[in-house]
Design brief:
By secondary structure, the chain is mainly alpha-helical. The chain contains two helices and two strands. A hairpin with a 2-residue loop joins strand 1 (62-63) and strand 2 (66-67). The longest helix is centred in the middle third of the chain and has 24 residues, at 35-58.
Amino acid sequence: MPRTPGLPRTGRHWAVVAVLAAVAVVVALSVGVPFAAVFILAVALMGPLLMVIMLHALRGPRRDGFQVRPPDSPRRG
């Protein structure tokens, strides 16, 4: 699998995403968007967010773009 440019696969970018989401909520509430609308939007976005997190977890541990396997596991191809 070729290495793609962008953020390293360390998981640190999730902290940036969380901070941006919190700032977006605070800004939306400060400009007068009702809390119920922000809550409904958050619940609606929770499904795709959980899907991305679970699919990321299913990829398993990787090093340099290749999956790390135990030494006793059979090799493919």
